[in-house]
Every structure is written in structure tokens, then in C-alpha cells.
Design brief:
The protein is α+β, with helices and mostly antiparallel strands. It contains 17 helices and 28 strands. Helix content is about 25%, strand content about 25%. Helix 13 packs across helix 14. Pfam families: RVT_2, SH3_retrovirus.
Length: about 700
């Protein structure tokens, strides 16, 4: 009307319709839903966005990204057992006008709006009808004098809704360590003041920065203190660590940084190095680089502000120009990796082309040393004590290091070394997982999954809160790094992360019950006469009820213990068990080729073809000859890679009976006798049963 142009009404929606508002990533946990089911009640007068009401949380939020279902409405009949006083009465609310005293409009660091109103005990229309005096009260919600004031609850009601906490849990809460969040909180305690001074001293000693006048038209990156109490294996306090972090989210790509990728060691590589060391009777040692990222040399010009609490008097307006990286910078991991890679190469180490964090150095006398990197953790092993000592001294001269001695704890893995071999498990992690979900002291299960159960997405059971289920399954996934015996059960549970039911949650708790009874189990690697790689391949045809896709699985052993395993649902539906076994054998072959190359880098080239045991004669024939054309002509070309590897004598498929197929434990739920047998063949054994193992 004022501009002479027709207004755009595309953003107008039906009032009261059902909608889903996107929750910003900064305001939700990774296991929580990405959106909230709400009701449209209006439009924000202060920012571009819709105002939504969530009947479950009784909150009003403002969201810009919303998906509407204008033909649907909230089903108030499902609000069972709720008093009408607890329902929001939309008839008394003007969606276009907002009381500024009842809503807060805050912007978080990422720029997302965080507008929320808590709605408690708003009376119904019948209660408010007589309370409205006239037009001047149209923007107010007036309660009856007999009703309690908003945001006030009866004390008995509070107590009745509080969960009962057992005494031992309450004691654990009291003993939990709480780290400071902000600088003002940390400065009150002497141990954190000392930790911050040590961090600044380490930075200055390393020549990380120079104090200069603030340059014009340059991005100044902020700094933040981060505090962490490090605990030992038994929960004792080892160190109070204060880390000065750069606010990397304020960096601009192409100006402040370019490439950011930095490789880390794969768990298969770590287990392979451990298995080889155990087979040869070598000791594995560990070094920890102090403030590793501070050693990375920067190629870009980066300026940061002075750290809080350590501003130089009289020069508060100046900034630091970085020569080396700080934690939090986008390029810090890559800069550190480039620095240590260059240094190791200058000292005669050869980097593996198949694993960029694995380094090998061979001496003229025939001695050899292996070095494996995971950011600032370095593990190394050799049969020569002189070579081990020289490497440690070499690293300590170049970097500030902490000598941790024999490898005992690495990436959540607990390692016990002795003359009998090396034992790897995750006892502490498993115990923490059981404690987190209240399963300490639960009745143990013999197997991780009932052999008679089959799970599907729509099983008719009631749905549960997915966040707790996802957290539980995610914790079990990390436990599979030393427990291949639960790999299949965890794989099945991951299929229902979107909408889990009570049956799925019960299956996850059964896995925890099994872990509780086998908490001291792990992988046992013993000395061997030679290094020989052996694999197993199996599949479960049409094992998934929902889409009838098959499950592929493989496992590889060196000596007495497994070093690599995988359980994965196939991408396409197999038309026969032969096709399912053939696809699984191809995936096994790909892993076998990579492991053979890793062993060759370690100096143990496999002269003979790697044996892969398979219980399907048809799949074995198909891998050697283009036979069974009618049943295999539709198989994707990539799955025929196995034929070339068989022809080149890289791998050899051999037949074994189902009773001897170790990978069977990775494809289906088995009875207790079979499960125990195959678990033993994978090298998963109990630590306490082996005398003299602990050192």
C-alpha cells in the first residue's frame, strides 16, 4: 500500500498448525533429535522467525528454519492425566505482541537465536474469562487469585517428582571431580593458577609468539582457557591441566587457514603392531609430547589477543603474532603432523605409504624399530634396547617429552605386557559404561544376544527416548575395539538408532549384562615362531528382516589373537547365499591386501597367498572361474576384484565347515556353546585366568 507493490505472503502459515522447528547444533547433544514438534502461535516481532509452542516442555521458542504441516493439528486428547491448568490457552495469547519482560532474545556464539519462554501453570479460558478487565489487558495473562503464581511449585510436588538415588550413587556424585569452566572460577584455586602459569611458560619457552602492535585490517583470534583434571587408571588425580585455546571458529578459510586434515593411526594398525611385538617378544614403550600442537610451524599470519589474566601491564592493546600453532586453530593438527613427519624423515625413518602414521627405521646390523603416532601419543617398539634408548633421547632433544615407560594405557586400551605375551582390554572403560547406565552388579548374561530373537524397526513395542539408546549403543561401539565378540550384537543395535523401541533397548541392556560378566576379557597375543596372516569370511543371507539385506563379516588373526574384524550390512540385496558369500569374500580380500602391505612395511612380507577360510564352495568356485553365469551375471563389477587377487596369489579361498567358521560369531547370534568356542578362537580370553601375566 505504501510502496505500490504487492506484499509477499509466502511466509504466512496457518495459525495453530503442527510444525517442526530445527534446533541449532550448538543447542543439542549429538544423540538428541534435530527438531522439536511444536505448534505455530505467531511471528517474532524482534527478528526474522516463527514463534512456536512446545506442549511437552511448555516452552515458547523462536525458530527460523521450520517445516510446517498445515493440515495437521496437535492431538490434545493424548494429554492423559493432565490438568487443564497445565495446558496453554491460545485464546488469551496475541501471537503478534510479546511482553518484553517475559521473553529473552539472546544470540549465542554461532549467531543462532535462543529465544525461549517457560510457560508454567497457565490457567484455562474459563478461569481467565472473568479476570480480563478491558482492552488494556489484552496483552496480559491474568491468573485467578486462588491459583498459585507462575513458576512456583508446591514443595511436596517437587519431592514427589524427584528420582530416588541410592546411597552409593550419591557418594559417587559427591566424589566426582568438577573442573572450572571460566577463568574467574579457576583463579580462586592455587592448583589451577599453577597450571595456567605452566602453560604460559611452556608457550613462551617454545617461541610460539611475539608481542606486537595490533595490525590494521587483520583478524584477531580470541583465546580461552580450558581446564581438565587428568585421572589415572584407578581414578586418582594425576595432573591439573590448563590449556590455552584459540577460538578457531572465528578464523576465515582461505585467509587464516587452508588445509586442515591430519591423519591418525587406525586401531587395526595399533593392534597389528602390538601383535607383531608380542609374537617377537618385544616390549612396547610410550612417549607423550607436551603441548604437541605448539610445535607446529605456521605458514599463515595469525594474530591472537593476550590471554586472560596474563595481560602485560601498560601494553594491553597489543596482540601476539604466532610463529607456531596453538590448540584450537584450524590448522594446528596439520602443522604438528607436518613438523614431526619432517623430523622423523630427517632421522632416517621411512613413512608407510599404506598407513601415514606408521614409521619404520632399519639399521645396517639388521635391527629395526617401529613408531606409531596418534596426535601427541607415540608408541614405539624394537628388539634392540640400544635402538629404543637412542630413539627416546632423539625425540627428547627435539621436543619436550614425557617418558611413560612401558605401554600401559593407549586410546582407552589397557595393555599388560609380560614374558607370556601382551593382553589388551578396556576394563576401565567398560566399568564406566556400566556405571553410567546403572548396570553395576547386574545379573550377567552368557551371550550378548539371544539366538532366537530377530529385531525389526516396527516391532509393535512402545517407542523410547532415542537419546539414551544412542548414547548406550555409541558407548558399546567404542568397546568393540578390543571386544570382537560383541561386534555383531552392536551392529544389529545400530540399525535402530532413529526410532528405538523398548525391545531394542532391552537388547542393548542384555549386551551390557554380557559385558558385566566378561569385564576382564580382552585380546591375548602370545609369542609365535613366525608372522602369518590368516582370515575368515562369512555372511548371513537376508539377515535383516526390514530390507532383506545380508550381513558381511570378516576377521583376521596373527598368531593367537584377532587384529582386524568387521561386521557390515551389504549395500544391495543378494539373490542367493552364494552371492552374499561372494560379496563378503571380496570385502575380506580388500582388507587382506591392505594388511599384507602393512606387514610388508614392518618387514614381514607374506610370501605365500593369505588364506581366507570360507564355508561356501560355490563362492570359492566363483572366485577362481567366471562360472555360474546365470546366478552371477548381475553382480556388480567391483565385487569381481577378488578374482584378480586370487590369480595374483595375493589371497586363496579355502573351504571350512560351518562348525569351524570363526567368522560365524560375527554374522549371527549363536548358542552359548558355539559362541564360547568361536570367542576363544578370536583370542578373546579372560585376563585373570592366566597366571604371571601382570607385570
Amino acid at each position: 500500500m505504501w510502496s505500490g507493490e504487492r506484499p509477499n505472503v509466502n511466509d504466512l502459515r496457518i495459525f495453530g498448525c503442527l510444525c517442526y522447528g530445527l534446533t541449532p547444533a550448538q543447542q543439542r547433544h549429538k544423540f538428541e533429535p534435530k527438531s522439536e514438534k511444536c505448534i505455530l502461535i505467531g511471528y517474532s516481532s524482534q527478528t526474522k522467525g516463527y514463534r512456536l509452542y512446545n506442549p511437552k516442555t511448555k516452552q515458547i521458542i523462536t525458530r527460523r528454519d521450520v517445516k510446517f504441516f498445515e493440515e495437521s493439528a496437535w492431538d490434545w486428547s493424548n494429554e492423559k492425566g493432565r490438568d487443564n491448568n497445565h495446558l496453554w490457552d491460545l485464546s488469551t495469547f496475541d501471537p503478534m505482541i510479546l511482553d518484553p519482560t517475559s521473553e529473552t532474545n539472546d544470540l549465542n556464539e554461532a549467531g543462532h537465536e535462543n529465544n525461549t519462554i517457560q510457560v508454567n501453570d497457565v490457567p484455562s479460558t474459563s478461569q481467565n474469562h472473568n479476570a480480563v478487565a478491558g482492552p488494556s489487558n489484552t496483552n496480559e495473562v491474568i491468573t485467578d487469585s486462588s491459583s498459585p503464581p507462575q513458576k512456583v511449585r508446591d514443595l511436596n510436588d517437587v519431592y514427589s517428582n524427584c528420582p530416588v538415588i541410592e546411597d552409593y550413587v550419591a557418594c559417587q556424585f559427591a566424589l566426582n571431580i568438577r573442573d572450572p569452566i571460566i577463568y574467574e572460577e579457576a583463579i580462586l584455586k592455587e592448583e589451577w593458577k599453577k597450571a595456567m602459569k605452566e602453560e604460559i611458560s611452556s608457550i613462551e619457552k617454545n617461541g610460539t609468539w611475539d608481542l606486537i602492535d595490533a595490525p590494521e585490517n587483520k583478524n584477531i583470534v580470541g583465546l580461552k582457557w580450558l581446564y581438565k583434571t587428568k585421572v589415572g587408571k584407578n581414578g586418582e588425580i594425576v595432573k591439573h591441566k590448563a590449556r590455552l585455546m584459540a577460538k578457531g571458529y572465528s578464523q576465515q578459510k582461505g585467509i587464516d587457514f587452508h588445509d586442515t586434515f591430519a591423519p591418525v593411526a587406525r586401531f587395526e594398525t595399533v593392534r597389528t603392531v602390538i601383535a607383531v611385538a608380542a609374537s617377537l617378544g618385544w616390549k612396547i614403550s610410550q612417549l607423550d609430547v607436551k603441548s604437541a600442537f605448539l610445535n607446529g610451524i605456521l605458514e599463515e599470519e595469525i594474530y591472537v589477543e593476550q590471554p586472560q589474566g596474563f595481560e602485560i601491564t601498560g601494553q594491553e592493546d597489543k596482540v601476539y603474532k604466532l610463529h607456531k600453532a596453538l590448540y584450537g586453530l584450524k590448522q594446528a593438527p596439520r602443522a604438528w603432523y607436518s613438523r614431526i613427519d619432517t623430523y622423523l624423515a630427517s632421522q632416517g625413518f621411512i613413512r608407510s605409504y599404506n598407513e601415514p602414521t606408521l614409521y619404520v627405521k632399519k639399521e645396517k646390523e639388521g635391527n629395526i624399530i617401529y613408531v606409531c603416532l596418534y596426535v601427541d601419543d607415540i608408541i614405539y617398539t624394537s628388539g634392540s634396547s640400544c635402538l629404543l634408548l637412542n630413539f627416546k633421547q632423539l625425540m627428547m632433544r627435539e621436543f619436550e617429552m614425557t617418558d611413560l615407560g612401558d605401554l600401559k594405557f593407549f586410546l582407552g586400551l589397557e595393555i599388560h605386557q609380560s614374558k607370556l605375551g601382551i593382553f589388551v582390554n578396556q576394563h576401565k572403560y567398560a566399568e564406566g559404561l556400566l556405571q553410567k547406565f546403572g548396570m553395576i552388579g547386574c545379573k550377567a548374561a552368557d551371550t550378548p544376544m539371544n539366538s532366537n530373537e530377530k529385531f525389526m524397526c516396527e516391532d509393535g513395542a512402545d517407542k523410547i527416548d532415542p537419546s539414551r539408546y544412542r548414547s548406550m549403543v555409541g558407548g558399546l561401539m567404542y568397546l568393540t575395539h578390543s571386544r570382537p565378540d560383541i561386534a555383531f550384537a552392536v551392529n544389529v543395535l545400530t540399525r535402530f538408532m532413529q526410532t528405538p523401541s523398548k525391545d531394542h533397548f532391552g537388547a542393548a541392556k542384555r549386551v551390557l549384562r554380557y559385558v558385566s560378566g566378561t569385564i576382564d576379557y580382552g585380546l591375548w597375543y602370545t609369542p609365535q615362531n613366525g608372522i602369518c596372516l590368516e582370515g575368515y569370511s562369512d555372511s548371513d543371507w537376508a539377515g535383516s528382516i526390514d530390507d532383506r539385506k545380508s550381513v558381511s563379516a570378516y576377521g583376521f588373526n596373527i598368531g593367537s589373537g584377532a587384529i582386524s574384524w568387521c561386521v557390515k550390512k551389504q549395500n544391495s540385496v543378494a539373490l542367493s547365499s552364494t552371492e552374499a558369500e561372494y560379496i563378503s569374500a571380496t570385502a575380506t580380500t580388500c582388507q587382506a591386501v591392505w594388511l599384507r602391505r602393512i606387514l610388508e612395511d614392518l618387514g614381514f612380507k607374506q610370501m605365500e597367498a593369505t588364506t581366507i577360510w570360507c564355508d561356501s564352495r560355490s563362492a570359492i568356485h566363483l572366485s577362481k572361474n567366471p562360472a555360474l553365469h546365470g546366478r552371477s551375471k548381475h553382480i556388480e563389477l567391483k565385487h569381481h576384484f577378488i578374482r584378480d587377487m586370487v590369480a595374483q596369489k595375493q589371497v586363496e579361498l579355502k573351504f571350512c565347515n560351518t562348525e569351524d567358521q570363526t567368522a560365524d560369531v560375527l554374522t549371527k547370534a549363536l548358542c552359548r556353546e558355539k559362541f564360547t568356542h568361536f570367542r576363544f578362537k578370536l583370542g578373546v580370553k579372560e585376563f585373570e585366568l592366566r597366571e604371571g601375566v601382570d607385570v
